[in-house]
Each structure stands twice: as structure tokens, then as C-alpha cells.
Amino acid sequence: MRIDIATLFPEMCEAYLSESILGRARKAGCLEVHCHNIRDYTLDKHNRVDDYSYGIGKGMVMQPDPIWRCYQAVEAMAQEKPWVIYLSPQGAQFNQKKAVELSGRPRLFLLCGHYEGVDQRILDKIVDEEISLGDFVLTGGELPALAVTDAVARMLPGVLPQEECFARESHYDGLLEHPQYTHPRVWDGREVPEVLLSGHHANIEAWKLEESLKQTQKKRPDLYQAWLEAHPPQPEKKRKKRKFTEKTPPDTPEF
Ligand SMILES: C[S@@+](CC[C@H](N)C(=O)[O-])C[C@H]1O[C@@H](n2cnc3c(N)ncnc32)[C@H](O)[C@@H]1O
């Protein structure tokens, strides 16, 4: 997957994207992310990319032309047309479901606004979708673009050691994750739950699901309710009378 971030502050984004898991994934070629400085595409002799807003507003607005020129140049850098996202407090709120959906696209173009925002005409021309990080206003779209990039990238093959790393985490299946423990076995008089030391896979799995349900019920009753509705209790199936054979030991549960 290729992600292009168009911003006035590419160094801010590069600093984050060069470190830790994403930095390693980029070096290993599991993920291609490029940060583009919109200012490089202005034709203004003073390198301006913004101007006063029309109307009575006081702030500065990013002009459409440098963004259009940046977009055209970036679009031509690879074959597929990118899915264009404008990070905006007016967009639909980002979540794990959206991250999963975006991780299936071959190319994303993330447009970061700054100041009062971006001239509406370029948004009308190129944007496929607006995404918000939440109901609050930030100074720029860089943090939201990095949040989207991070959440999407960690689901790409090779970025994390195994798919299980993200597929069992909070929000992936509608639940919050069970509590996690590491060494030492006893810390501050508090012990790691016995079952996790047992090596009994079925019991450990059952404990994880139970704890996951408890965490969700306690911290996010809205998610818990939605999960219960999506997983109604199964009616007990009637036991069929079966003849015992050598292949079916007497204690085999019947489904
Ligand atoms: C100060 S904000 C502009 C807010 C705009 N005047 C409004 O009221 O909707 C500047 C830029 O930060 C980004 N931004 C701010 N808050 C955001 C949020 N919650 N989610 C995503 N992007 C955000 C957007 O790219 C926006 O263009």
C-alpha cells in the first residue's frame, strides 16, 4: 500500500513515521509513505500558500492552486488513482472499522489542512471522503493524518509480526481487549492470574473472552450492548441419539 500525505509541515510527519514499528515497516518495504510539502507546489514568488478568507472572517485559508498542483504531481507518481481523504473536524469520526476498510485500498492521499482550513473549491474537486479524529478542533491535519496512517498501516501484511497482534485487540471485533500481564509474576503483592500460567490453551482462551466481556461492559457499555445484540445466545441444540462407534468416544460433545 502507498500513502501520500500532503501537508505544510512534512517534517512533523516524517519525525513520527521514521520511528518504531512504522519506521521499520517502511525500511522493510511493507509500507510506502511519502510526505509532500504543499509549499513546493506554489507558483507565488513569496512561496505563499494561504490568503485571507473572503467574507468577514479573520483567519487565513489554504489556497486551492498549490494543493491541486501537489495532488496532480503525486497522483502521477503511481498507477492507481489514490482515494483522497481530507482530515477535517467536519468529517465522519475515524474508527477501527474505517481503518480496516482503508487498509484494503491500494493508495491513499491524505490532505492536511491548517489555519482556518482549505478553500472549499479544491475539496469539491478532489476529496472522496472527510475524516475527523473526534469532536474537537486541532491546529492542523497532521496528527489526524498520522493517526489514520498508523491505524491503517499496522494491519498491512508484515508490519506486525502476526495478524493476531491486531485482530485480537480492542475494537477489532467490537470488544475491548482482556487485561495484559508480563514479568514479574508477583509485583507489589499482586499476582498474575493463575490461569495464564497454566499452559491450558482452552482455559486461557475462555479467560480472555470472559475478561474481554467484563472490560467492555465496565468501560464501554455501549459497545457491550451492541456486541450482545450481534451475538444472541444460541438455543441449546437437542442431543441426537448416536450410536457409539470407535471414532466417536462417548464423551465427544455433539454439535
Ligand atoms: C483549525 S482547523 C480548521 C477548522 C475549521 N475552520 C472548522 O471550523 O471546521 C485546521 C485544520 O486542522 C485539521 N483538523 C482540525 N481538527 C481536526 C479533527 N478533529 N479531525 C481531523 N482534522 C482536524 C483540518 O485539516 C483543518 O483544516
From TrEMBL:
Its EC number is 2.1.1.228. Its main location: cytoplasm. Keywords: Cytoplasm, Methyltransferase, S-adenosyl-L-methionine, Transferase, tRNA processing. This is tRNA (guanine-N(1)-)-methyltransferase. It is found in: Cytoplasm. S-adenosyl-L-methionine binds at G113, L133, G134, D135, F136, V137, L138. Homodimer. Pfam families: tRNA_m1G_MT. One of its GO terms (cellular component) is cytosol. One of its GO terms (biological process) is tRNA N1-guanine methylation. The keyword Ribonucleoprotein does not apply. Residues 1-225 form the tRNA methyltransferase TRMD/TRM10-type domain. SUPFAM superfamilies: alpha/beta knot. The keyword Nuclease does not apply. GO terms for molecular function: tRNA (guanine(37)-N1)-methyltransferase activity. Residues 221-255 are annotated as: Disordered. PANTHER family: TRNA (GUANINE-N(1)-)-METHYLTRANSFERASE (PTHR46417). Specifically methylates guanosine-37 in various tRNAs. It comes from the Bacteria. Gene3D superfamilies: 3.40.1280.10, tRNA(m1g37)methyltransferase, domain 2. It catalyses: guanosine(37) in tRNA + S-adenosyl-L-methionine = N(1)-methylguanosine(37) in tRNA + S-adenosyl-L-homocysteine + H(+). Belongs to the RNA methyltransferase TrmD family. The gene is trmD. InterPro entries: Alpha/beta_knot_MTases, tRNA_m1G_MeTrfase_C_sf, tRNA_m1G_MeTrfase_TrmD, tRNA_m1G_MTases_N, tRNA_MeTrfase_TRMD/TRM10.
